[in-house]
Amino acid sequence: MAAASHVRALPRQRARPVAAGGQVHRSRAPRPRPRDQELECWGLGDFLVTIGGFQTKFLAPFLRIKIAKELDVQGHGIPVTVANTTYMGMNALHAAGALGRLPVYRYLVEEVKMDIHKPDTLIDFTPVEHALKHGRLPAVKYLLDHGANLHLQRGDSTLLHSAATRGQSEMPNKDGGLFGIIDVALHKPSVSCVKLLIQGGANVSGDNPLAKAAEKGLTEAIKCLLEAGADPNVVDRFGRLPIELAVEYGTREDVAILFPFTSPISTVANWSVDGIISHVQMEIKQLEDDNFVEKRISDLKQQAAEAFKKQDYLNASVFYTQALKMDNFDAKLLSNRSLCWLRMGDGERSYEDATECKKLQPKWAKAYYRQGAAQILMEDYDDAYHSLLRALELDPESQEIAELLLETIEVV
What we know:
Elements: H1 35-42, H2 44-51, H3 61-70, H4 78-84, H5 92-99, H6 102-111, H7 127-133, H8 137-145, E1 153-154, E2 157-158, E3 165-166, E4 178-179, H9 181-187, H10 191-199, H11 209-215, H12 219-227, H13 242-249, H14 252-258, H15 273-286, H16 290-309, H17 313-326, H18 331-343, H19 347-360, H20 365-377, H21 381-394, H22 399-411
Helix pairs in contact: 1-3, 2-3, 5-7, 7-8, 9-10, 10-12, 11-12, 11-13, 12-14, 13-14, 13-15, 16-17, 17-18, 18-19, 18-20, 19-20, 20-21, 21-22
């Protein structure tokens, strides 16, 4: 009886129907489905019905096919209708990222011949970026194998080396901070996608993906990025190194992996894995002391102001960064550091700080003013005009905003 307890009972099988003459009825092979029924099976029917404004989950399959056919008002057939139909700026190939089903991609790319390089008009994502956002590794690989270009030119830069996508929410938008295509994979997170992108030639130097991997505790991604040449000595916008983020959010293994590649930190007396862990833990504990934090930030602000008066913008930015490390919700610190970057001619960093400042204080005119000034430095005059116009709406009495707005209008 003891041995029998390890044997699983086989599931019962339904008996086949037997005819009067003792013949066993054989089940008929399924009939091939027409193309429109394949469309329904893959979910593209749902995409078309969504465009029609219906709630697809409450509709029977035959009704979804019927509505999809009705959308083909020109009589060109469902494949052509799918190729030419958009919803909220996305076509079927963009929407396929949510499904991640390879038959969908094969049909759209190989039969319908849809453009795999074309970005949507909502968030400026290409099909491969949509697949990345949803962590669809097979779909990403399929698109790369069929010519998806990670080095696709966008204006003066490429997808991998510039602000290919903007934002920090799950659905990035054009008003957020800048980040590259690896960040899309890290945001999911999808380590497999990160590896695939690096193999495809993705740039690991821009936008500090190593810091993001450390902050998320993605051990395998950290290894992969280091092997690909990512620099562990680049701080994030709050002045934190990847190894410091690994102490706070990751594991000891993450710290040990980063340690041999990280340059010694001057404030860490015992430069070892244990030493850096103790140092960061002490800093975290100090942040719990409100009196210590308040005095430390006050001192750093004073040092930054003195450096700024001497036109030592680099050191001023360092002091502001140290203060932000203790309080990264201080909009004035971000605004001041944005001005430091501006004076040093770094438009992108100035814009990033101004954008973060705007998120913290969405009705503060100076945040929009800083953003507009950074956009002018980057020669993005159209967006600068809108930023400065909003700044003037919030502070109609500001002479400096009005003057910069007039200068921008002359250029536009």
